[in-house]
Specification:
Helix content is 52%, strand content 11%. By secondary structure, the protein is α/β, with parallel strands linked by helices. Strands 1, 2, 3, 4, 5, 6, 7, 8 and 9 form a 9-stranded mixed beta sheet that branches.
Length: 397
């Protein structure tokens, strides 16, 4: 049987890779059977002794005599062929049985593929942990409500964004008083306020005083007095000890509300002096000024009225600088940061820094908060997720 026929036969029978032993055996037997006739004839010719009666015969008679195969050779050949064909039949039966039998190797292959697949990463299991979001630029109300529902945010501190202002923030809070906690802002990042900051215009502070007196706002912020440049935002660098920041904290004291400030580490000395000047005013430090660990500890130890806010610090990767995140691998908190949070559970709060640019970016922010909360001890988690911020926005009268 030709080799091509062998391959077509095995394709029809569905013999797979697991049948290679049977296939090789079958093909060897075929090759053996194809060459057996020639080998037997050659063997008979070489081993046969001339018959004495043939010596006197003509060449034609002797040639005729050589064409005949001795009976004992024929019998041996038939026996061997029967064995060969029996072995071939057994090989065919084995191949057919293997083709119909279940593939015992497949479960092992599937198990191997499963072990090589990515495992569920830390912080991604279980239902969402309830938390109050300390940092939301409310640009898309519907998206924000959906994200809160999906990721367990029971309430959210909301303030101006690229598509909102103090008025629209108050209106959103009226529609959802149990969900939104409105803050009033006169941040110099906004072009309508920047000139007043540049000239230390007291009328801007008077405007903030009116907003707080309305009772619609539960805090002040975000006030970005010192903010490095980022997409869509101009850099600001106003002295935290200047008249405007002092005026903002004086109004916070008057109305007994917290202040959310964005002041980066280049002005940390001035911020420290400002906190000393207003020790009774609760100050929320947005993103913790993106300070490294030892500066965060130092500021918290020196200033009891300072709360370290972790928005954008829990992202797997920060677009401005990779060292802004407190995660060592995009998921796990650095052990030293975890130790600090556990040692000072009343001094940290979480936030998303939501801005509603896309579903993907906002989902990442909310997931990052859940990831951090799952790595905290239960007692610390409750403080960081809920109680600390709740006590700041609902001060004891």
């Amino acid at each position: 049987m030709p080799n091509g026929t062998d391959r077509r036969f095995y394709r029809r029978k569905g013999c797979g890779r697991g049948d290679q032993g049977a296939k090789r055996k079958f093909c060897d037997l075929l090759r053996c059977s194809q060459g057996s006739d020639e080998r037997d004839n050659r063997h008979a010719m070489s081993c046969r002794k001339p018959d004495r009666a043939d010596t006197g015969r003509s060449n034609g008679d002797r040639s005729h005599r050589h064409d005949r195969t001795p009976d004992n050779v024929t019998s041996s050949k038939e026996t061997r062929m029967r064995g060969i064909w029996a072995a071939m039949a057994a090989a065919l039966v084995s191949c057919a049985a293997q083709a119909q039998a279940p593939d015992t190797q497949e479960p092992r292959r599937q198990q191997k593929r499963a072990s090589a697949a990515p495992t569920v990463q830390q912080g991604s299991d279980g239902p969402p942990i309830p938390f109050i979001d300390s940092h939301v630029h409310l640009n898309d109300e519907a998206m924000q409500l959906d994200l809160m529902r999906r990721f367990g945010a029971t309430r959210a501190v909301v303030f101006w964004g690229r598509a909102s202002d103090n008025k629209t923030i108050a209106e959103a809070a009226r529609r959802h008083p149990d969900l939104f906690i409105p803050f009033a802002s006169i941040s110099p990042e906004r072009s309508i306020f920047r000139s007043a900051w540049t000239t230390d215009d007291p009328t801007l502070l008077a405007r903030l005083d009116e907003l707080l007196a309305s009772g619609l706002y539960k805090g002040i912020g975000e006030i970005s007095a010192v903010h490095f440049p980022s997409p869509g935002l101009n850099e600001t660098d106003f002295d935290p000890l200047g008249p405007m920041m002092r005026g903002v904290l004086a109004l916070a004291r008057k109305h007994r509300v917290p202040v959310l400030v964005h002041i980066e580490l280049t002005r940390m000395r001035e911020l420290s002096s400002l906190l000393d000047a207003f020790p009774d005013v609760p100050v929320i430090w947005a993103h913790g000024g993106y300070t490294p660990l030892f500066l965060a500890r130092r500021m918290l130890e020196r200033h009891p009225n300072l709360t370290y806010e972790l928005s954008a610090r829990t992202w797997p990767r920060h677009p401005r600088a990779p060292d802004y995140t407190i995660l060592q691998d995009g998921r796990s908190i650095w052990p030293e940061w975890l130790q600090l949070i556990e040692a000072m559970p009343r001094r940290f709060i979480v936030g998303t820094d939501a801005s509603h640019r896309s579903q993907a970016s906002e989902t990442m922010k909310f997931e990052s908060v859940q990831n951090l909360l799952r790595q905290l001890s239960p007692a610390t988690r409750e403080r960081v997720a809920h109680s600390n911020l709740s006590e700041l926005i609902e001060p004891r009268r």
